[in-house]
Amino acid sequence: MTSPIELEGVETSSALDKEGASPDKAEEPKKLAGRTPGQLMWARFRRDRTGVVSAFVVLFFFVIAAAAPLIAKVYGKDPYTLYGQENPELLDMFTMPAKPAGGMDGEFWFGIEPGLGRDVFTQLLYGIRTSLATGLAATLIMTVLGVLVGLAGGYFGGKSDYWLGRVTDFFMALPSQLFFVAAMPVITTVFVAPDEETPTYVRACAIIIVLSFLGWMSLARIVRGATLSLRDREFVEAARISGASPWRIIRKELLPNIVTPTLVQATLTLPSTILSIAFLSFVGVGYVEPTPDWGRMFAIGANIIEQDPYYMLFPGVAMVIFVVAFNLLGDSVRDAFDPKTGR
């Protein structure tokens, strides 16, 4: 027995057939509706489960970094108070955590620091905050420098491209890590007298300057290559013939077309920049006491790894998760922007 719904569908179909239209043809305009490149990129990115999970992990790190003071207030601890000195029962006679597993309990979730007895959980929160803020600032400056140099060399060509290329080669030839270690003390002494303590903001500015000084070259070469492939295209020639100035052509025609490689390279640069910041603090030329920082925590943990291996556990795991997630996110963003990808 045919249901009313089926009869209704048959009647509707017959009516459409009589009018010379079918259901498939009625839905055809929806199927032919175009999507913008941004919508296509977002659709490809959502299909990539690895990229989506990595994005949530990276977002989680940024949220806890931004909310570090609020989390510490709710938690009831801070990264500066010497809890082991205030309560001698927390440390043994060798200034190691008296409780097992590095002093981890309901009061100190990640344990306490050997020697001074500071809270590891809040140190990690503020260390992530310090590293991310410094890394973002340095990556932003690297991106701006790389885009400017790459666009100038690629568009103007000739002697401008030659000399900018030689400058880029010179900076790429410098041993970056040795230059970091050698330049940091010099930069800080320029702004602070030798007999005075270097403020944290001066160290932060020095780290950003050094990292930006030696981190823009890869992006500059990528942007230069993209600009060389675009400067002889029809839309650029049309703008040039119409009397547009070089600045207008660069700003209106070239810059929007290099957003994709720039964004992908910046996404891949940030985790390596954060690792460089940790390296500087680890060797003693970056952030120093009492500023919480990932690299400084690794430096402390390296000295007491045999006596208290738990101190390095959470900072190390957090660093590995963040760097891996950000690199996977960069790969996913690159695949999403690439229209030829099969993912």
Question: Summed up, what is this model?
Answer:
The protein is mainly alpha-helical. 71% of the residues lie in helices and 0% in strands.
Quote the beta fraction.
under 5%
- How many DSSP helices? 17
Average pLDDT confidence is 81
SS-based class: mainly alpha
Radius of gyration using CA atoms only:
28 Å
Q: How many strands appear in the DSSP assignment?
A: 0
Largest sheet: none
What overall geometry do the principal axes of the alpha carbons give?
elongated
Listing every helix as H and every strand as E from the N terminus to the C terminus, the arrangement reads HHHHHHHHHHHHHHHHH
Residue share in helix: over 70%
Q: Which residue ranges are poorly predicted, with pLDDT under 50 across at least 5 consecutive positions?
A: 1-32
N-end to C-end Cα span? 47 Å
3D architecture notes:
This protein is mainly α. The chain is built from 17 helices and no strands. The protein has helices spanning 4-18, 23-31, 37-47, 49-66, 68-75, 83-86, 100-103, 120-156, 158-173, 176-191, 200-213, 217-230, 234-241, 246-254, 259-282, 294-303, 313-337. α8 crosses α15 (259-282) and α13 (234-241) packs antiparallel against α14 (246-254). The relative contact order is 0.12.
Helix and strand topology:
Elements (H helix, E strand, L loop, with lengths): L3 H15 L4 H9 L5 H11 L1 H18 L1 H8 L7 H4 L13 H4 L16 H37 L1 H16 L2 H16 L8 H14 L3 H14 L3 H8 L4 H9 L4 H24 L11 H10 L9 H25 L6
Helix pairs in contact: 3-17, 4-8, 4-17, 5-8, 8-9, 8-11, 8-12, 8-15, 9-12, 10-11, 12-15, 13-14, 15-16, 15-17
